[in-house]
Task: structure prediction
Amino acid sequence: MNIEDRPKPQLDNVSKEYWEAAGRGELLIQRCPNGHTQHYPRAVCIVCGESPSFAKASGRGTVYTYTVIRQNYAKPFRDELPYVVAMVDLEEGPRMLTNITDVAPEDVLIGMPVQAWFADAGDGIGVPFFRPTPSP
Result:
């Protein structure tokens, strides 16, 4: 995977902390004072409208659904074909859109346990991806 050629995340007042934490190898989610969790970062809780704060997530989850991308003519994605885009249910509750890596697309399964890993995007930020959780 060539993260260097991908578009860089756009940091703003809401997401900056998230991307910087990913640069340190930490996955953050948001939790509001009423206990609702959410991902991706937003200025308000999508359930109650309160102001959420960031909380460290375990980085563990399960594949909720996925698709295999076999055609994409945009650089650099065309060089990564085929690749898996998935919705992952995080242990803490939120669902996250991501890529599943380090596994053949035909071996990805709904319900597969996965673990976050982080690619360095430069400038102290990172991008989270997921791969299958190793068997104990």
